[in-house]
Write a structure and sequence with these properties.
Blueprint: E1 10-13, E2 17-18, E3 24-25, E4 40-44, E5 53-58, E6 63-69, E7 72-77, E8 82-87, E9 92-96, E10 101-105, E11 112-117, E12 126-127, H1 130-137
Antiparallel strand pairs: 1-9, 2-3, 4-11, 5-10, 5-12, 6-9, 6-11, 7-8, 7-10
The structure holds thymidine-5'-diphosphate (TYD).
The site of thymidine-5'-diphosphate has 6 residues, from strand 5.
């Protein structure tokens, strides 16, 4: 799916179960709360406050990104428009389709970025150069008259 746009990035309100002894639980089921089969889970932590991560796109990988602790912003970019999502509750999940450039910004102290991913890690699935990503993403577009 090359023709994804920022509009395909969706903030999903996950289920929140308030527990009797205070606190909350959010369960996530494969292919129910996420529109793909989860093949990998990873999390990013010990990120210094205020720092930035990301700066890449994936050819095929789909993800659900959650701020399991703290907060950060995810700026998505399809080469024609940008959107910024503030993830500041563990009950929000940001669905990221394939072929979207993303940057993670404004990490709070103690921020943990939990990622549910549709594929195992594969370096060849990455675009790490923005120009190359844009060229490939819109390569079937007719040039302007
Ligand atoms: P990367 O996805 O590039 O993170 P960021 O863009 O935020 O820096 O991952 C950083 C490094 O971690 C990369 O060189 C490969 C390694 N890595 C794995 O080995 N397995 C994984 O599942 C992930 C996500 C990264």
């Amino acid at each position: 799916m090359n023709n994804t746009t920022c509009e395909d990035c969706k903030l999903i309100d996950l289920t929140v179960i308030q527990t009797p002894r205070q606190g909350a639980i959010t369960p996530i089921y494969n292919s129910v709360h996420v529109p793909f089969d989860i093949k990998r889970v990873y999390y990013l932590y010990d990120v210094p406050a205020g720092s930035e991560r990301g700066g890449h796109a994936h050819k095929a990988l789909q993800q659900l990104i959650i701020a399991a602790s703290g907060s950060f912003d995810v700026v998505v970019d399809d080469g024609k428009s940008q959107r910024s999502f503030c993830l500041n509750r563990p009950s929000y999940g940001l669905y990221m389709p394939s072929m979207m450039w993303r940057e993670l910004k404004n990490f709070s102290g103690g921020g943990i970025c939990l990622v549910l991913a549709s594929l195992p890690y594969d370096e060849s699935d990455y675009y790490r150069e923005y120009e190359q990503f844009i060229k490939e993403k819109w390569r079937n577009e007719n040039p302007l008259p």
